[in-house]
Amino acid sequence: MKIGVLSFNTEYTMRADRLARVLEERGFESMWLPEHTHIPVPTGIADGLIGMPPMSGEEFLPEEYRHMSDPFTSLAAAAAATRTLCLGTCICLINQHHPINLAKTVSTLDRLSDGRFTLGVGAGWNVAEMENHGVLFEDRWAQLVERLEAMRTIWRDERPEFRGRFVEFSPLWQFPKPLRPEGPP
Questions:
Q1: pTM of structure
Q2: pLDDT tens for each residue of 5-20
């Protein structure tokens, strides 16, 4: 059985490189980090003390959502501190990144980890967070598919170019390429 660990990876939890080392020493298979670039301060109904929107009913989002570190920087530190531990995002909010930048970040992390990186992606649920990135909630799945396609084009082609509904770029060079031509799983 393979067992992995999810960490919210905040400034008050164990640092990602230290956690990764401890997990590897104890035989865990993987470490997964989530992503929120930010949590918008809610308007309307919210707890005045913590300023968080309710999840459902009277429950509020845990404080950790406001304190998440960048998963890619953290996973790079974890990759440098380990040799066998698999590393992944759970999930990367792909719509909150430009595909050219994210393709570079992911391929670099894939190389630094010797292919131990898995890119878990999602379209998101926080409407205000998406709006701050210029993404309409109703377009989120179409944008996810297109942005991932654009990234795979960058990883696969020597001189990639892309024309879609949401993403467009003329021929470019971008290296390093990930270890697998289609990118990390």
A1: 0.90
A2: 999 999 999 999 999 9
Q: Residue 138 carries which DSSP code?
A: G
**Pair 33, 74: CB distance under 8 Å:** yes
- Amino acid of residue 174: Q
For residue 41, the enclosing domain spans 4-169
Of the candidates 90, 79, 92, which has an alpha carbon nearest to the alpha carbon of residue 16? 79
d(CA 179, CA 185): 11
- 174 inside domain: no
Domain-located, residue 180: no
Q: Residue 112 sits in a domain of what CATH number?
A: 3.20.20.30
pLDDT > 70? residue 64: yes
Please give the tally of structural domains in the chain: 1
Torsion of CA 48, 50, 56, 61, to 10 degrees: 170
